[in-house]
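Project standup — Tuesday

K.O.: blocked on the structure for the chain from last sprint. Re-posting the sequence here as requested.
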Amino acid sequence: MESEKGFRLRKQALKPIETRKRGEKEEEISKNNGQTTCGEEPLSPSSRLYHEHNFNVYVIAIMGCKTRIYPDVVKANLGHTLLRHPRFSSLQVEDEKNGEMRWVPTQVDLERHVIVPELDQNMDSPDKFIEDYVHNLSKTTIDKSQPLWDLHLLNLRTSQSESVGIFRIHHSLGDGTSLLSLLLACTRKTKDSQALPTIPIRKKQEKKNDRRVFRRFMLRFWFMLQVFWNTVVDVIMFLATALFLTDTPNPLKGLPGSESTPRRIVHRTVNLDDIKFVKDAMGTTINDVAFGMTQAGLSRYINRINGGQNEDGGATETNNIPKSIRLRSTLLVNIRPAPGIQALADMMEEDAEVKWGNWIGYVLLPFTIALRKNPLDYVRNAKAIIDRKKRSLEAIATFYIADIALKLFGIKAAGALSHKVVSRTTMCFSNMVGPLEEIGFYGHPMAFLATSSYGQPYALMINFQSYIDKMTIVLSVDEGTIPDPGQLCDDIVESLRLIKEAALTRGLA
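H.V.: unblocked you, prediction finished:
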């Protein structure tokens, strides 16, 4: 095993970052008992929203590493990278006079933020211990006397890694995509210690040069008409959901108060090439396949709960799913463009400015719950739903609706609106894109990455997280509603196998 001294020497290959400006700023802050009016700014409305008692959300990032994690190395590098982001070195302080919350720069005590528990290396089930550890974390919050994040380093060998790091970050610090980008900006490629991770970029389709002016005009007009109509329908559904429209009672829908219950976070890893195979065979996207296999997995699980299982617990072909079940996912979308990894790395290295913050819009994504004879129909249906959502300005329109509610009625009313919309749907679904090659977190090679959250007012959150040639499916559940999250996760994995098998059988490869 590599020694800590040798590890630190190898880590010096990372580009050093000058901290003179930061040091001067911290010196000025320390003269004012840890606070200063210089650099203070108010929290955005979306950040304040995440402090409402029914919307107190934390983001979780679980990183499995291929080597032992050395806490001293991590702490030394945090001071030169993550802590240079003002949100991670600021308190959120409420003004006693007007109740306004402001970011107040402070000195960060890494001994409080980086937790390294002593562990029994000979325990029977280290994977279950990590799962329980995260479960216990979800029962707690971070004290507001410090910046709202912490990092737990667990040097415990599991089935997938030699050690595990668990980042916990309050959602008021940023949206999930920006926080993940910031985390990745703290990493480097293992093959090139100076290079940032490579994230795949969606290729733009080449526009065909259609010289028929009238036809081109009609196509554009038809597209604009579709966008207008879909946006109107989506806004009406959003308002109806805020007022009265709720999902059909189903085994996945949580009871009122789900936001305050602890979460069990489980994950499974599948081969990303299997998803790409289905994508290429059907002419869809990875997101379409992920959505389709999730619809299939949820259908299998609900059918089993309603009696569609053998004596040994296996699924049967008997259809026990109620007809016309309404099951939707709420996507909270940051309509502000997320800063790229390079921009965030420049910010941490050179004090460059970067746009940051939550501008939250809502997208209500309907799931089709049904047993289908042809597994490929799940992907076809998913593509149709997502393609329609792409031709809608729902996220932008709902952002402005929430913004108007905030300005007219205040943060309490805006929080109530958000809570009603989210709690009247069943779940949350997302797909996050990760690096294409192996990366190291401050020199520790990463084996897997699993992201999720807790504190949301629904009982189920499903997140897909890609990394190199793997896709990790992460479930965050309220065990009072979903007592066997591992089975649900397995149903989603099994659905991918059936979909791929169907594509091969029908000669679509």
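K.O.: great, moving the ticket to review. Confidence is low (pLDDT under 50) at residues 1-38. The longest helix spans residues 213-243.
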